[in-house]
Model the fold of this input.
Amino acid sequence: MPELPEVETIKRDLLKNCKNIKIKKIYIYIKKLKFKINKKITQIKNEIILKIKRYSKYILIKTTNKNYILIHLGMSGNIFIFKDNINRNKHDHIEIKLKNKIIIRYNDPRKFGFWLWTKKKQKIQKILNNLGPEPLTKEFNEKYLYKITKKKKICIHKLIMNNNIVSGIGNIYANEILFHAKIIPYTPSNKINFKKIKKIIKYTKIILKKAIILKGTIKRNICFLNKNKGLFQKKLKIYNKKNKKCFICNNIIYSIKKYNRSLFYCLKCQK
Done:
């Protein structure tokens, strides 16, 4: 699933190539993704893309005449940007053609993402209001997180993946953060002391910043304009390293399944 660094990378690609450009036409090639797609979205023509913002794992596009498009990539969604008319692939479900001949395509093999169109800003705000603070902001700090963990018995890995608590962290980065903070991922949240909470905050910010610089972890198909390969994949220390040696202590890395997620950990380095 695309997480904060991957979605931030896509947002920056869109800003660079699509902001202040007029929409020529929007095509919908499927009736339903996670939710039914409102066909009125295709009526957005000759409007300029004014704003492109990221909120957690959401991308929000605002055009003239107060049209809002809220996009979530789900488990397998991706946005590709092309400079000319390139043949559509099997899982390309939505396409925006711009006046400068740039094409924005939404690709989603598993169809768990969604595109929400509305003219009511409050409808968008209602969704975004449920999100926790962005992890790279001052609002996400040790006092905030410690106060929450003391009230929760769920494992810390699941807690920091909860977008109502902190926005944008998924399984890949949760595993990496907890490895660097030296915390076993299935540790109950209320058993973690303040010193370790400070480490979670510290490494959350360090790892996400590095991942954004390296354009995320997930390898993306090379396109004409957004050639992002997810180079942070080469920096992963624990995620998807089951039965491999820990790079710190050479002990074998373990993995267990919890709530349909794979948790990776080193019993020597993490406590």
User: Anything to note?
Assistant: Strands lie at 23-28, 49-55, 58-63, 67-72, 78-82, 92-98, 103-107, 114-118, 254-258, 261-265. The chain has six helices and ten strands. The helical segments are 4-18, 121-128, 142-149, 156-160, 171-180, 194-213. The chain has a mean pLDDT of 94.
